[in-house]
Amino acid sequence: MAQTTKPSALLSSRQAASILGVHTASVKRWSDQGVLRCVRTPGGHRRFHRQDIEALRGQPVGPHASFNERLWTAARQGQQMRAEGELLQYWGQVGRWEHVSDAIGDMLVDIGRAWVDGQVSISEEHVASETLLRSMARLLMMMPLRPDAPVCALATVPNDEHTIGLAMSELILAEHDWKSLWLGRNTPVDTIVEVITRPDVAMVALSASEYSCSAAHLAELIAAIAPLARRHGTHLVLGGTGAWPDPPSPAHRASSFRDFGLLLRNQLTSRPLTRAG
Fold first, then answer.
1. CA separation for the pair 46, 37 (Å, rounded)
2. Which residue of 116, 220, 222, 229 pairs with 234 in a disulfide if CB–CB is 3.0 to 4.6 A?
3. Using only C-alpha atoms, what is the Rg of the chain?
């Protein structure tokens, strides 16, 4: 006679999703696909073994390397619809845009190395970048947001031209019910300062790539804007591979897109901090 597991030893879909950091819909989808086994209660509800959930924690579910290869092939050939399909399919597997974005980040690092070695042409890199940006912009338009959603301004630091990270951040923000205010590439310090003081902006997320600014310049930037953000009650998030200094309050360092998602869920409020009168 088969052994039955006590209900108290099993996790609900909501509990499993909380541990894995994904939506409950993703847990149910993995169950339907046979990726994650479950048992059913007499009422038909799914229950999951804790050891199965723990085995998946921190691990993207799906063929990460294969996804990068397929996405790169579509992007460098300018096949936007195919790229969008690959992005949506992988999001369906891993459950959150932050996991998709981290996979893309790994792909971009590999492409950068290939470009330095002469294995990727300038035209291929430009076509791939534009294809990815347009694909993400279309996907963002499919994500409804409430009119009063909080606003996060997205910008690269001065001298930085890389905006794919901002586009990925837009998807993560929308998934957490935040609006984006796109400032884009090579944002002047004066513009960053002006946006920090806007009453409708609750957060400013800055991206710096490894080659855009020296550690000294990034430290100077933070020294100039962190006190202003504190005074106006605006969250600061520092992203990218740049040599950011240890962030003073209210700044947060997001070393990965998963870090950004965790910040949005666990540490940042959807309302601006108390603003100066």
1. 9
2. 229
3. 21
Reading the chain (277 residues) residue by residue, the pLDDT tens digits are 334 445 457 899 889 888 877 667 678 877 876 778 899 998 888 999 998 888 877 665 544 678 988 999 999 999 999 999 999 999 988 889 999 999 998 888 778 777 877 888 989 999 999 999 999 999 999 998 989 999 999 999 999 998 999 999 999 999 999 999 999 999 999 999 999 999 999 999 999 988 778 899 999 999 999 999 999 999 999 999 889 998 888 899 998 999 999 999 986 654 444 444 4
| CA distances for 253 relative to 161, 204, 215, 236, 249, angstroms | 20, 12, 14, 9, 10
CA distance 48 to 8: 11
Question: pTM for this one?
Answer: 0.77
Q: Of 32, 80, 67, 31, which is closest to residue 52 (Cα–Cα)? A: 31
Sign of the CA dihedral running 205, 208, 213, 217 = positive
Q: Is the peptide bond before 42 cis (omega within 30 degrees of 0)?
A: no
